Records
---
Amino acid sequence: MTKLKIHTIESAPEASKPLLENSLKSNGMIPGLHGVLAESPELFEAYQTLHKLFTNSSFNAEELTVVWQTINVEHECHYCVPAHTAIANMMQVDPALTEALRNGTKMTSEKLQVLHETTLTIVRNRGYISEEEVQAFFAVGYEQKQLLEIILGLSQKVISNYVNHIAETPVDKPFEKFAWKKNVSV
């Protein structure tokens, strides 16, 4: 498969240069995903906007991580699982939760388990969810707002996961120690 170009600030379309400069300033590097996204300034801006909106949603760091990593693992994103493992570490998320997400094992609390299961249902069923599943989500303390915010996180992850699949984006050096492959044992 032809790999897609990973832009630098110098090679990027003019409209993407400020986005890459902000990425460099924020991350101390330009993540490979951002370099690929730079080819389409519109997609890059959409991704960054969705990221900012989801990060500022009502979910805390653990809940953000559950939604992101549940989707990353389900989509088998070789790039985003390690990247979000590093992000979870920076956000001081319990490593036991991160490992449970990466390995498909039980979450560290019932509430996070229900968030995980609800996110999986939405992803696997393309937005269809039963009344019983919605009620189980509400029963652990979530509300309609959080149900909708899962879709916001999914919107962001569809962009990054799908782009990484198509581009075969190499995992960035700082994330290599968190490399991941889907656990095929059941």
---
Amino acid sequence: MLEAAVKKQLRDFSLDLSLRVENGEILVLMGDNGAGKSTTLNILAGLVCPDSGKIRINGSTVCDTEAGTAVSVEHRKIGYVFQRSAVFPHLTVAENIAFGLRAQHHDTAFTAAQVSRWIDRMNICDLAGVKASGLSGGQKQRVALARALATEPSLLMLDEPFSGLDTESRRSVKEVVRQCVGELKIPCIIVTHRPGDARDTGDRICRIVRGRIVWEGPCSALPDGR
């Protein structure tokens, strides 16, 4: 479970949010550009320091400004998939998935087993030896998800994960996200601008305006739309 209450003074407004995401739940953050959604993810990941607040993941405190606690990015056990599917174009699919595991200094056998597991899980076995530069947008997104999940994160965060995908890729990636979050029973936060994506994928939504939650409710309450 994720529990977070953070404040951060931004250029035009003050971000002030409290979030709670249960294991196996997908929380969607929606709002206009510049509302503070991506900044929120970066604070949770440890890429941006909050001015004040506390962040707990599965009962462990990774940030507490009052106590002076700030766990480093690499030790927060967060799978973070950026909007641009940040795969390494010069590496193969298998090498991309192994990258995070090697950074965590896992042994060769464990790394190979995880790579094999997630290549199979994402249905990209035929692409294992293909360099990422030759992949489609949907394939790159699956590789980015596999790389994030192979490290067995305690929290998954996706920033506009369906942006730029064609209709079929969008549908399949949504399905994979929901299945994996449910199976792994980890909290997940998705940032998206599209009500249809939120409704199809998420359980609960927080609408953010200038760094504050102005509405919260089930994604099923959103109107249909692309």
---
Amino acid sequence: MAAVDVRVERVIHASLHEVATYAADPTNAPEWYANIESVEWRTDPPVRVGSEMDFVARFLGRRIAYTYRVEELVPDERLVMATAQGPFPMRTEYGWEPAGDATIMTLRNTGAPSGFASVAAPIMEAAMRRATNKDLARLAGIVERRA
């Protein structure tokens, strides 16, 4: 089974707290993730360990619905969410580090696709890397305008 592991980082010219607060709020995901169409909370906000949210996304021309559960949250440092159902169980990790007046944000997606998705894993990984770079650029634009 082919594993997918996409890790992208970007310097964002805004304070660590501003970047982390905005990015860690799943409600904002459709604004900065090009492929995410909607997020519905299953548990009450704000985000915390155990929070669950239903995401609907489009990826490689397919509609994908999945539920993320927050596994770890260290405010202004790290957020880890995972889903186990569907053809592509996924783990998403956000990390934030100070870089002077800026922030280095790392976004990592890992998973082990099954069925057809496992055959397409190399294509999916390349597409995810392109999309993730664009998503972090979009996030940077939003947060930097607010800063």
---
Amino acid sequence: MGSLEHVLRMWADDEASRALGMDATVIEPDHAEVRMVVSDAMVNGHDIAHGGYIFTLADSAFALACNSRGQTTVAAGADITFVAAARRGDTLVAEARVRTAYGRSGITDVTVTREEDGAVIAEFRGRSRTLSSR
């Protein structure tokens, strides 16, 4: 199975991302972009987007980018830095790029921006591990 066929099938089976209204707009080797509109259900008590939803958006883009090489790859860990608040109705775009892959390990950076003005909302760094084939 080709690299993109593997990741496209993975995305089609991703019920969690679909339930949040995410849309993968770019899927190519080592790169992915995913969009999501901040809904009423995603806003916390401060009337801003809950960080967990922003993390989930970044994590979904991370998964697409690191699986784009055609091998089953999972998260080994991730960190996020929130830079600015997102609000109800904002369209967020997570752009993921694999920075390095060595052996079965990799590092992927994801920048989450607000589509309307390009403001950076968060920076995410994911560490991945490719599963050995059986």
